[in-house]
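Encode chain A's predicted structure.
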Amino acid sequence: MKIVIVGASFAGVSAALAVRQKYPQAAVYLLEKQAMLGYLPGGLQLYFKQEIDSVAAARFITEEQLQASGIHLKLGTEVVGLDAQQHLLKVKQSEAEYDQAYDKLILATGSSQWSQNISGSQAEKVLKYKDFPGVLQAIETLENSHKIAVIGGGQIGAEACDLLVKKGKEVHLFERMDYLLFKYFDREMIQPVQEALSQQGAVFHFEESVEAIEEERDGLVIQTQQSAFHCDSAVFALNVRPDLAYLSNQVACHIDGTIKVDAYLETSQKDIFAVGDCIQVPYSLTEEAFYIPLVNNAVRTGMLAAENLIEKVTPFIGSIRTLGTKLGEYYLASTGLTEAEAAFYDQPIAASHVIQSSTSFFKGAEIQGKIIFEKQTQRVLGAQLVSKSNILEKINTLALAVQAKQTLTQLAQKDYLYHANYANIFDITNQLGVAGLRSVADED
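Encoded structure for chain A:
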């Protein structure tokens, strides 16, 4: 059996390794158009924070590690066409083109940064972070820039803002919503983080959408409905989109350009699966599917496609948008539904807050926590944590509670680690369950 995987980022590599383990006798081919394998999109931050000596060190896997698994890796190889009926890919390598046959095909081509709505977004000084060549250009440009615009206030934009402010740059962040990270946090949870960034020098342009970017001799002009902002360079931190022109309409797609798949990640064409940033994923808390290009979704779907190649045995359970990051002195973590999304949920929801004095009995910083739950059933729907201590791992416990459809009572009574040096006498995750129960009792 010949299994071909197109794209060697998180989804493609995860799929390739899982396929090799499940089908040891199969011939596995991994095609990647970039010349470098395994680049971490967060490499720019690691480099500027001096956590790595070279941005080239920001890799989650090397060619040697992959090939040691018996996978045929072809770098600098671009897929330019598909014949689904004949089970053939048209492949371009250097100047040569050839046909690549497959028995099973996994599309994991990832995504790229572009916008149909913002003219000029491909300008040279509009910097991208997704691939290694783009990051090399960004390093040089940012070092020579003083006044920088960050376009987008999601995770990438917020992290870029924090990093550049620390480097002494004048940073202006443009976001169409009225606060940072609105998909993951409610306003009151993110407010202290925004205030801290403002005090460090960040300038926020909320409710201000970028409509166009114009090049000028010494930099850029960022055009919005409200203003024309002149800067040396810009960081493009809006949502990525899949680049699937090679499909030539042979595989059914959604209106946003993502590939339609069934619950087992198979496309409209038999023997062709799609994963990672190529697809929408079901949002586990509603009946809808969304484009959620997160690494955890890429890895999980890549591994799952390998399970379903021959026989459809395991459906994808979907995503609850689990995120963790650090901005300034604050660690932030979120999972599941926010309170602001209540209008989109078909049952009444409620929320409750907790402030824990410290992460452990003798040391650590205050933790602010928020739990979101269904009023009638008390099912846990989401949670948010903010602290100056590293609480990021705790969001995994809360994510599991959401996925397992636990109630407030089950969360309040879950077992937990206690040690005087490392943990508080009552864990914040348990406290959130208790707080929710108390808020319900107070209403009654």
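The longest helix spans residues 428-443.
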